[in-house]
Amino acid sequence: MAEAEKPPIRITxxxxxxxxxxxxxxxxxxxPDRRRxxxxxxxxxxxxxxxxxxxxxxxxxxxxxxxxxxxVSKDGEWIASGNDGGEVIVWNxxxxxxxxxIKVHSKAIGSLDFPPDSTFLASGSxxxxxxxxxxxxxxxxxxxxxxxxxxxxxxxxxxxxxLAIATKxxxxxxxxxxxxxxxxxxxxxxFNGAWNTSLVWTPDxxxxxxxxxxxxxxxxxWDSATWQQVGEPCKGHPNFIxxxxxxxxxxxxASASRDNQVRLWxxxxxxxxxxxxxxxxxxxxxxxEDGKYILSGGKDAIIxxxxxxxxxxxxKDQASDDAASRKDTLKEQVADNVQQSDCEILxxxxxxxxxxxxxxxxxxxxxxxQEINADTKDYNSYxxxxxxxxxxxxxxxxxxxxLKSISIQPSLMGCISKGIALxxxxxxxxxxxxxxxxxxxxxxxxxxxRLLLLIKAIALFNANQxxxxxxxxxxxxxxxxxxxxxxxxxxxAYLHVQLGMDALDDARHNEAADHxxxxxxxxxxxxxxxxxxxxxxFVVLFGWDLKxxxxxxxxxxxxxxxxxxxxPEAIEAYRYMMDRADEATKARCIDWSTAFKHDCSxxxxxxxxxxxxxxxxxxxxxxxYDRAIELYSAAIHLDLATDTIFAKRSKARxxxxxxxxxxxxxxxxxxxxxxxxxxxxxxxxxLHGAHRYDEAIEAFKIMLSKLEDAPDTETTNLRRQxxxxxxxxxxxxDRIKAQLEDAPHRLINTSxxxxxxxxxxxxxxxxxxxxxxxxxxxxxxxxxxxxxxRDVVAMYFRYVMLSHRWEGAEPSLHDIQNKVVYDxxxxxxxxxxxxxxxxxxxxxxRWTWIDTCCIDQTNNVEVQQSxxxxxxxxxxxxxxxxxxxxxxxxxxPGALASSVWNxxxxxxxxxxxxxxxxxxxxxxxxxxxxRSPNHKDSxxxxxxxxxxxxxxxxxxxxxxxxxxxxxxxxQWVSARVTTWQExxxxxxxxxxxxxxxxIYGEKRQKALxxxxxxxxxxxxxxxxxxxxxxxxxxxxxxxxxxxxxxAPPYTLPSLSEDEIQRSISSLRHVAGVDFVMSIYxxxxxxxxxxxxxxRLHLPCIAFRVTAVKRSRAQDQEIYEVKADGLHDxxxxxxxKLTQFSSPRPTMQTFxxxxxxxxYLLELPDFAEPSGLAGLLDVDDDMQSEEDYWSAPGSPLxxxxxxxxxxxAQESVDPELSDRALRLTARLxxxxxxxxxxxxxxxEYKRIASDHDIIAxxxxxxxxxxxxxxxxxx
Length: 1273
Fold this sequence. Notes:
- This protein is of the alpha+beta class.
- The protein has 43 helices and 44 strands.
- Strands 36, 37, 38, 39, 40, 41, 42, 43 and 44 form a nine-stranded antiparallel β-sheet that branches. A six-stranded mixed β-sheet has the order 31-30-33-32-34-35. A five-stranded mixed β-sheet has the order 1-26-25-24-23.
- Keywords: Repeat, WD repeat.
């Protein structure tokens, strides 16, 4: 396997922790002096820390709400904090406040940053703006940068020339000095609508790195020349990435995530090389100034300091940056150093040197003594023999030889030997002087200086000055000129091993484990032979065994954890060691490995886990995932693993949402059993759970192919349990089409701010996480889970409609097409559009519709389709927002009733059609501060609407479109106005459920006439003929204007049941059953009224007018009228009628007619008609007009012969007879009539009256000859 593909190092042990905050930590920053750190918490405090000892230097108070952002100027002079209340406070480097809380943003601060010259401070906020502060005055300079969406991060480029801003919806690049936007691109928003959460520039400014939210939890790199993505993204986090940070050289990147992890990435190949595990969500991360440590904090209110592992993988890519001057990986350094020693400071013959290295000290002593005897002035041999004596702890003779060497010739080796000997004799002050003098002989050689400092520290360590020794090595590692040298790391690791061994001997097992952990994290691979040769000076001087350092550290790490009772960690450490050990190391560890596994196996029975896998199964079944993972891991680490155990641990890890770990197990399952479908089935489940749906779908396809190719029939039959991707895609596509049938063709995407046609909407869904998740999950079920498909599709495509009053310059489709709504200049109706989209977006809705710019007003076909579909669109909206631009904030009840919105024609259907509505005031706050999800459920608001509109309570909250009670619906809109006169009729199409051509320019009378003609023709409802005013040119029986319906219809006095029964009793004696049945039959046989070509064929009872006499009153004409079968009556009209009487007859025929109303027959109730399928019963969108409407029919067909009259009284159905008598009783009562005048062609025209004409029958017997159907023009 390639080096880049090695699994990341998993680190759970911190180098240091900083505790004190009482709430989540959102910010951490290190000062350039490398000594101090500042942290910001939601506990409203900042803390200034000493990085070395973890002491709090200053608690900085003054914030009035939780702190979310923190920045330290590049020169280390200033600290800035930003809180949830939109306030900024500035502090000096010592933590003294320079300003009071300054509120310049209306919402939480989302980001703070200083440019390289520290002359400005940029503050970004969730209020969509970025402000620039002058650091001399701490005042905001210039206008804010309007970004159009919540600002999540703002970062100056290394040159300070650019300011990169990450918002929820895009990434923007600005010239901050000119307030000029240079570029904008979607960034992570292009992937599942994710937010852009964090930014960081590479040190050379050539690339910008960004992080995304949960919908795209990746890290992406952008070329600053083109703003195109560079290479593949960094993938690994399964959840929201809060912050990213680069090390000083720009080669390593750290990311903090909601998944409780900080990941360390190698930027060159996007590989995760280490994972630092927190106990909770991680919100902030930073590198130390030297890049050796990572500092991170989050929900656990603790800052954790992690050592960046000194491993070859981390430093691999640095070689390409400066290969000539720096060798950055262990292998490169070792390879170079085998050929060229780091520094030669030992002058010793090879034989004696080898004897020291192998530990044959007597031989080394003998050889060096021979050299001294041969040349008593050989000061080097004295110094070398002093080293040998020191290794034997013969400190007096070691000091004698050292002093002899110096007396002959002062030298570097002589001073070193003296210093070591004096340390051994615990004469530390003199020893330090000796080492100090030694520095005179290094000739300013940095390598020799570093080596001498390390020897000095080791000598102190061996003299039991261990704390001071460790501190010296750590300080040297921090300040050494060559940050990539191995020497400090090797020495520090060796010293930790020695400390660990001492702690282990004293049964301080946890302390020992910590030391061995530090050593293991410092040395990254087992092959130490080259290092042993390279640093044999430590072997010669101190007898160190560097060859086995890695093995010793790892074995004792495992042993210490085991003895500390940390069995799971011990087993994990064992596995870590075995995974990284080379074959030679494994061979040397066979005996130890066997014994260690035996010890672990013996400990598990004491916990009741005699069969690790079986007990793991029980824990998994009980949902105890931690225990299951522990047990399965123990089995795996102890080399008891099978593909089944890996599979089960994967399921347990999935239960904990540890998707990366679960996926590693899945890959192992596939590796162990590549021909089985099971591994790919499990891989699909894990990838699906990790929201990596594209990969999940590919895994599922492979699983299907494995099932299809299985050699046994039983496995092949399992294929029937699943659907193919094409089947799932087809089912989803069918549901999309059905869903969008009742939706507008164009919608605005609230995330992108762009107008999208249907094709774009569907493509957006196909690219979304919702679609991919649905496809991935649907394939698992052969029945395709149609109900869930419906729910997911409905949720994705749900949209919000706006009901409002057009004002001034409203934006058109062409004004916003191919533009981002949020970027438009806020003029005219644009702010309303922007606020509407933001309000819907903030409520979680993806799509919005507004009539001003979602319809192409220049396309007549589209306008006609939209007008006829409008009611349906509002009906099927997830929410309709009603914007009251003239209702100020904090208005009292009654403001809604007086709003101009309540006077407009279109707003009637816009309120009645939707199931959910919310009223918003001028400032886009909720009316009456009513925060219920549906204002139709608000009794107070609905009562106000009822009083304002005259609409009954039932219709207000659950309106059903249709033609019943047409007169009532016409009265609702009789006082409404529209900009275009035809719209008063068009706005009623949906309310009546009709679909008619839209013909702008036809004028009001024709538009209203066509509508009323359709209502009467379809329903037979003649209540629309009940009006007073002027006749229409379309048809004289219809009004010229909707205002003719403003007055309520004349309400005739209703008969009580007692009165009806008395009348029936009278009729039985006077008229007889035969007579009343004749009337009933005659009226029952009448056809319904019908309209054709503007002509009304009206069934009615027509009473011939016999006399008309005029009597003038003011501007009106009042006529006394006589008619056959009626009492005399008065008619008021502006029309002039010809006067006539029996002595002076007229050629023109006049009738007073009673339009026939079939409801008087008291037939069984039929459901009301509607032309809008699916709108009557909101719970059944498949019901059609035919389900509840049928044409009028006669119930007498089975009672009468073909002649229509009963043959004998006793054959009449008593119930039918009773209805006939009740009808006759009602015919005797007063009724509303209108006057018709015959025309030359035999048709009639209605003569309009300014008042209701109320007539009453005098002679019922005459009715039999007066039942007619008249054609009215």
